[in-house]
Amino acid sequence: MDLTQNYLDTLKATLDQLDHKQIDSMIELFGYAQREQKQIFTFGNGGSGATASHAAGDFIKGASFGLEKRFRMICLNDNLPSMMAIANDTDWSQIFIESLKNYLNPGDVVIGISGSGNSENVIKALQYAQNNQAKTIAMCGFKGGKIAALADVVIHAKVNDMEVVEDVHMAVFNVVKKHMMARLHSEKSMGSTYDARIQ
Predict the structure, then answer these.
(1) Torsions phi, psi for 190 (to 5 deg)
(2) Which of 107, 115, 166, 191 is the most buried (most CB within 10 A)?
(3) Strand 72-75 relative to strand 109-114: parallel, antiparallel, unpaired?
(4) Which class does domain 20-186 fall in?
C-alpha cells in the first residue's frame, strides 16, 4: 500500500463529503459576528487546540487587516496559565467553561473543536454556550460524538482518522476566511512586508 497516496485519497474523499450547507452557515455566523461586533471563541485539545489557535490568528490579523470593524476572535486554549490553574484547582473538564464564564455575552459565537466529538471539556463549554444564548459551532470527526448534537452548526469530517479530521477542520476555517476577505476587503494587501515577501 502506498501510504502517501492512501492518505491523500482519504483526505480528498473526506473533503468531498463535507456538508456545504453547514459550511455556508458557518460563513454567515462569521459575517454576523463581524457586522455586529460579537466575540468569537474557539478552543480544543491537542491538534484541535492548535487549529483553534491558528484560526484565531488568521482572523485577528489576516481577515481583519485594514478593516474598521475587525473580527474579535479569541482562542481559549492560548492562555496556558489560566488553563493549568483551572485544571489544577478544579478539573480538566472545566478549563474552557470557566474562561467562557468570564467573557461570554449573549449572541457571541462559540466554536468547539474535538476530533472525536467527545472531549468532555469541549462538551461542557458548548453546553454552557447554548444555555447562555450564544451561537454555537461544533467541529468534529469520526462518528460526530456528543458535540454534534449540541451545536447550531456542525462541521463533521466523516472519517476515522484523526490527522485527516484535523486537516479538514483547518481547510474549513481557511474557506471561511477566504469568504470573509472576499466580502470585506476592497484592497488585497496584507501589509507591505507581506506583499514584498510573496512577490
Answers:
(1) -110, 15
(2) 115
(3) unpaired
(4) alpha beta
Residue type, 157: A
| CA distances, 41 to each of 5, 100, 174 (Å) | 35, 8, 16
Q: Can you give the residue ranges of every domain in the chain?
A: 20-186
Strands 109-114 and 153-156: unpaired
pLDDT tens by residue, 7-51: 999 999 999 999 999 999 999 999 999 999 999 999 999 999 999
